[in-house]
Amino acid sequence: MDISIYFEPLDFIPFESSDHEIRHRLGDHVTAYTTNNELPDFISADLAIVGVKEERNAKNNLGCSEGPDHIRKALYQLFRGDYKPNIVDLGNIRNGHAVEDTYFALAAVVTELIKNNTIPIILGGSQDLTFANYRAYESLGKVMNILAIDSMFDLGNADQEIHSKGYLNKIILHQPNFLFNYTNVGYQTYLVDPESIKLMDRLYFDTYRIGKVRTNLENVEPLTRNADMITVDISAIKHADAPANPNASPNGFYGEEVCQIMRYAGISDKLSSIGFYELNPSLDINDQTAKLVAQMIWYFIEGFYNRKNDHPYKNIKEYIKYTVSIKDHKDQLVFYKSKKSDRWWMDVPVKNNLKDVYERHHLVPCSYADYEVACHDDIPDRWWQAYQKLM
């Protein structure tokens, strides 16, 4: 499929070193679609940066369409890590006549990238673009998981038009539906309707308050390892660290915390797309937010180039198997530990007729702490959540 019809080139050169003998900045290693170059070959690339300057469905954040190029300029100034990046920048998707046309274009582009094992890094624009990202998995026929870094759930109402603070219900209700699990990391209770929290519980979705997450940030790693796509709302970061969003709160993630989460995301072998949304350059202070998002992407890239390729559904023989019996529970709990990375998974029972459908989902990423819970004759919450959906 020719995706070049969807893109317009960048009108600036990503980066040119002042010292042309030392070319170690990311911009020196990114092949970009500019007014002087053709659309780069994305098929052989590891990662592809895709800008989407769409804001027509933004909620209280007009101006966020200018975010992609500001992020780029900060990102390409950063020095690369100890790896050889193979990254392309495809430019910005042309806005359609209607917002739905932009959604269609983004979904088509993401579909083509994932089919070729190239991970798209989407730079928004408003967060309703998450819906278009999801549609790509629908077109691939893949049952998938979404993880949102967000201070709210962005559910919205079924009878309202989609917008940046109300897109999730469109994903949940869309038919055919390929969403297996939704995880929110970092919601702030006073910003969320209690009925929405109850709804998330009834749907067996995973939600984690900002306070709970920050007590032990390492617990986020299994959550990112279970996600196929991640959507990041910049307003989840506290205003002092990321002022370029009118919906930002005095509370939220610190910059270094969200960078750590992005590294976890990069390391995840399952993750195949990620998007960053809602940065409004007109509200930024000395490009502080653009620089933070650039550093978040830097950590994601650094994590990607440290992937272990050790998801157990590929080769279960390379794992240490642990079986735990629970009193008054008919099923034994089965855990697997990677010999390569020391990461843990749980094997959750699934109906025989659904094993092929949920091949990638019944082996649930977990932590050593979950194994310890089982050893103390209790069932981990993470196991129960997956069990309810699989059985």
Key traits:
Arginase, Chain A; globular; alpha/beta; 14 strands; 391 residues
Structural summary, described in words:
This protein is α/β, with parallel strands linked by helices and 391 residues long. Helix content is 29%, strand content 19%. The chain folds into 2 domains: 4-304, Ureohydrolase domain (Arginase, Chain A, 3-Layer(aba) Sandwich), CATH 3.40.800.10; 316-390, no CATH class. It has helices spanning 67-75, 99-115, 129-140, 168-173, 194-202, 210-215, 220-225, 255-267, 288-304, 368-375, 381-390, and strands spanning 7-8, 30-32, 47-52, 87-93, 119-124, 144-149, 179-187, 206-209, 229-233, 273-277, 319-324, 333-338, 344-347, 363-366. Strands 1, 2, 3, 4, 5, 6, 7, 8, 9 and 10 form a 10-stranded mixed beta sheet that branches. A 4-stranded antiparallel beta sheet has the order 11-12-13-14. Helix 8 (255-267) links the parallel strand 9 (229-233) and strand 10 (273-277).
Work out the count of structural domains.
Answer: 2
- The CATH architecture category of the largest domain equals 3-Layer(aba) Sandwich
What would you give as the CATH superfamily of the largest domain? Ureohydrolase domain
- Poorly predicted runs are none
Q: Tell me the number of strands.
A: 14
CA-based shape: globular
Radius of gyration over C-alpha positions, nearest whole angstrom: 21 Å
Counting DSSP H or I runs of 4 or more residues, the number of helices is 11
Which fold does the CATH topology of the largest domain refer to?
Answer: Arginase, Chain A
What is the H/E string?
Answer: EEEHEHEHEHEHEHHEHEHEEEEHH
Strand content: 15-25%
Largest sheet: 10 strands, mixed
Helix content: 25-40%
* CATH class term of the largest domain: Alpha Beta
Mean pLDDT: 93
Report how far the terminal alpha carbons are from each other: 38 Å
Structural class per helix/strand content? Answer: alpha/beta
